[in-house]
Amino acid sequence: HVQLVESGGGSVQPGGSLRLSCAAAENALSSRCMGWFRQAPGKEREGVAKIDRGGSKSYADSVKGRFTISKDDAKNTLYLQMSSLKPEDTAMYYCAAGRVFGYCTSFPHWGQGTQVTVS
């Protein structure tokens, strides 16, 4: 099991920025696809951004141009830089890790989440 701990959430006004971090307890990032997901009250969880083992990134259409996913393998940390935040970005944000040498289609490891509120 890969332990993931998110941080960096909080409350921000529309148009503001936040950077989320996800610390892994082991050298997990370089061999796995990593992703950020979010879930708003009453809505299904949705994928926000993913970064595969080779560093290729993908984003949900709703966040393209505003959010940037990155990782620091040496620090075992995944990041999500969020800019131009909108009220509809309000949600619990989760970090997730895929299987070793796996694809970005399955994420068996999840963090506890960090709340982002835009109002």
Would you give an account of this structure?
The protein has no helices and 11 strands. The mean pLDDT is 95. Strands 2, 4, 5, 6, 9, 10 and 11 form a 7-stranded mixed sheet that branches. A 4-stranded antiparallel sheet has the order 1-3-8-7, with no helix packed on it. The chain is globular, with a radius of gyration of 13 Å. 33% of the residues are buried. Helices cover 0% and strands 46% of the residues. The protein is an all-beta fold and 119 residues long. Strand 7 and strand 8 form a beta hairpin. The N and C termini lie far apart (36 Å).
Element pattern in H and E? EEEEEEEEEEE
Instruction: Assign the structural class, choosing from mainly alpha, mainly beta, alpha/beta, alpha+beta, or little secondary structure.
Output: mainly beta
Q: How large is the share of residues in beta strands?
A: over 45%
Detail the poorly predicted runs: none
Q: So how many helices?
A: 0
What is the rounded Rg?
A: 13 Å
Helix content estimate: under 10%
C-alpha termini separation: 36 Å
Largest sheet: 7 strands, mixed
Quick tags:
119 residues; mainly beta
Brief rundown of the structure:
This protein has 119 residues and is mainly β. The chain has strands at 4-7, 10-12, 18-24, 34-39, 46-51, 57-59, 67-72, 77-82, 91-97, 109-110, 114-118.
Furnish the topology, listing elements before pairings:
Elements: E1 4-7, E2 10-12, E3 18-24, E4 34-39, E5 46-51, E6 57-59, E7 67-72, E8 77-82, E9 91-97, E10 109-110, E11 114-118
Parallel strand pairs: 2-11
Antiparallel strand pairs: 1-3, 3-8, 4-5, 4-9, 5-6, 7-8, 9-10, 9-11
